[in-house]
């Protein structure tokens, strides 16, 4: 039988993004930056309106109390002679303190007020085109899932035109657009319910995308996994009727000096298995494949950006379920490469599938091995829900964390703990998958993973349990549910590594 074809059942809505030298003839709205000046709000010069029109707009904005403080959105009627229904101003705060992150957040905030508008023109790019494009695209994203036809859809702006008078902006615009599209692809994968995204369908979706992009992809099914000894992936998958997969996606440019191995956790649903999770909020475990989504999206974007660095994403995909064949506490499994693990808790499943994937990724002897996973609840206890924990070899760990902070994906270096070496020991296997106390759960998981990284390879582990999935309120350019973290960190790192000697 031919392989069935798979595609995403629904995608989040986002506006089309355009770059133009001049304002479009007619628009539904014009979006302008508003600054918090010492003597009230200030409208900077804009390629969209002449000085007289700007003065009119500023008067209207002042009349309704706009101040220009960060993320304040104010809508006023367009002045006479301007072919737009309204002008929407978004505050950027004190110009002396303006950063890319403030601009992204303000752009994201105003993007959420553009719902239903067909064409919008903006000069927000005057303060940083890349940040404005990313902020608008990521803030406007809205995922409504799978609905009956009678349900009205939330339609965001059809098209946003970034008006910039400089020619050099075309490349900056393209990089920002491709980056935002990658984040959005990762969000779409993570937002897809596990009824529709399971190892086989997920591998199928990635294969279809790889074929369309002309990228190399390898998919190991359960038979191939068994033949090659992927005991960790098989163990986690054995309690589900939906068999696991291992997917490897490669961007191999003609010119490349460095190779980067990315690895991402792909648990398409995590019930906990026999060590079952409580019912409350378990639906959020649709997001337990966020690491794999981020690394897949990164490879597709590296190819679109034509980055001169070879990148392979290794993604172990499995569904963690508690059926009659499921893995039990007390079982001993043999990972790819031969290390054995005693299972203490079947809910510590991410490290079991990642162990196999790390050994496989290490076989390619990459210059850098960077892995990311929604690995531990302890990450959120330690760092909160917006800041990823980064562990691994010191130099790469610190570099990944700093890059994350630079691009607006907060990340913080955390140590591997010497005292936990003993806690890794098992009476019946080489190591065990959980330790007997509540302390340093994120660090213990990283120490466990470190045993599977090839000798001498620089590696980093990024725990994104909190930052990859937003279960609290919308903020800036971060919607509810999938955030697409850490795609922008990884793309920034790849761009840097591509420029290394
Ligand atoms: N997928 C979870 C971690 C998680 C929890 C991600 C909440 C996002 C939100 C992971 O597989 C897990 O269950 N980890 C356990 C490990 C423990 C049993 C050692 C945890 O953190 O409780
Ligand atoms: Zn788990
Ligand atoms: Zn998990």
TrEMBL record:
Mn(2+) 1 binds at residues 270, 347, 349. The keyword Nucleus does not apply. Its EC number is 3.4.11.1, 3.4.11.10. Binds 2 manganese ions per subunit. It is found in: Cytoplasm. Mn(2+) 2 binds at residues 265, 270, 288, 349. CDD domains: Peptidase_M17 (cd00433). GO terms for cellular component: cytoplasm. It holds the Pfam family Peptidase_M17. This is Probable cytosol aminopeptidase. It comes from Corynebacterium comes. The lineage of its organism: Bacteria, Bacillati, Actinomycetota, Actinomycetes, Mycobacteriales. The gene is pepA.
